[in-house]
Amino acid sequence: SAGRLRASIDACIRIASKSPQQNDLLKKYSNQLAELFIVSEVILEEWNKIASDAKSAELAIVAEKPSGSKCVRCWLWSETTGTHPDHPGLCDKCYEAVTDE
Quick one: which of 17, 25, 38, 60 could link to 51 by a disulfide (CB 3.0–4.6 Å)? Predict the structure, then answer.
């Protein structure tokens, strides 16, 4: 809402929960959360790391800019983008798809 991110894929989401059951569920699906939320990255945090002042909330979510660079193929931000000299604009996932390695 502050206008710092142009689209959801331009975000890294940090999530923390007070509930052990919610934490277990988030951890179970951690590899799919970025795709589910249509963001570049999801980081599961300890409650006291991002929600120390949110006394009544059960879940804390912080959106910020992701690290790395934007892949020219999938448009997701990744620290692996730019690490392939023969395809410098691709992340690891897209590099594998394009080169069939």
Answer: 60
Partners of 31 in the β-ladder: none
Gyration radius of the chain over CA positions = 16
pLDDT at 11 over 80: yes
DSSP codes of every residue in 3-40? S--SSGGG-EEEEEES-HHHHHHHHHTTTTHHHHHTSS
Listed in sequence order, the residues at least 6 apart from 54 whose beta carbon sits closer than 8 Å to its beta carbon are: 60
**pLDDT tens, 41-77?**
999 998 888 766 656 688 889 899 999 999 999 999 9
37: its two tokens: 């939320």
Q: pLDDT tens across 25-43, in order?
A: 999 999 999 999 999 999 9
**Backbone torsions φ then ψ of 8, nearest 5 degrees:** -60, -35
d(CA 60, CA 83) in angstroms, rounded, equals 33
